[in-house]
Amino acid sequence: MSHLRLKSSELEVVIDATYGADILSIKTTDKHQETLLQTPWADRAEAVIKQEQRSIYLEPQAHWMEGYRGGWQMICPVAGPARVIHGAPVGFHGEAAISTWKVNNLETGSARMQLDFFSLPIRIEREVSVDGNVIDITDVITNLSNLELEFDYSSHPAFGGALLEGEVTIETTAQKFHLDEEALSPHGVSGSIHDWPNIKGENGKVLDLSRLPSPPTPLGVFGYLSDFGDKKWYRVKNVEKNISFELEWESEFLDFAWFWLEFNNNEGSPWFRNVRTFAIEPSSTQTSGKNRKSILQLQGNQATTIKQKVTVSS
Q: Whose CA, among 102, 120, 204, 207, lies 20 to 30 Å from 91?
């Protein structure tokens, strides 16, 4: 399986265009510090993707997780559980993250890729470029029909490597944190809304999400950020390792950011308390609940552009 490798003076980026256009690695060139997750079963997931290993699951979420190597996915046109969208039954986390993308251009520091969806009449043209310690990602999404379409888009970078080796701090322009409506949490009432960064539980305890504990302290949180204001931005920093990951995005449709934290917490499959990761995911929709609705709606033949800028400092 051929992976695309983009390089600058400060960063190395690995992309798998044959499966989801996943960004599998973002690593510094001087200290070789990794910023993204690699799952404990990444080698087996690679074998499943290559069809060297038979997949053992038919259930959509389990099947997706079996091929999950970590890294950074585009989740579209469905984020979360499988559902029917405009008459098309779409599996867990959608089509984009499991499809083979066409590579239109490849250079040392940039790549242009394209995917024409089967589930919906949409096309996404993606350009990834790296210059110094900055990665620019531009997605142009086009409705190829003359019908109005509503669908999900979520950008799913799962962090790991040196970035999470020790205590981690988070800064963001978001003002609110929402605990997921459909997930039980020991930190507060499901669906409750809190002023970032503190979750205030009914028991009076406060969880500060701007400071995440060092290993082996377990912690699990699921919800989403909102109320970003004019600038949609966050920074994840490991003070001890002196490395940080910043993400800023521009889109009229990505007003939320899913917040998924799995610090050796979940005892069930597939985690078994063996994984330390979290993700802050710019998204067009809330995580769940009766009011969940994607704000990504394109009129017939309309196009929209999503820009993401990553800055890795070390």
A: 102
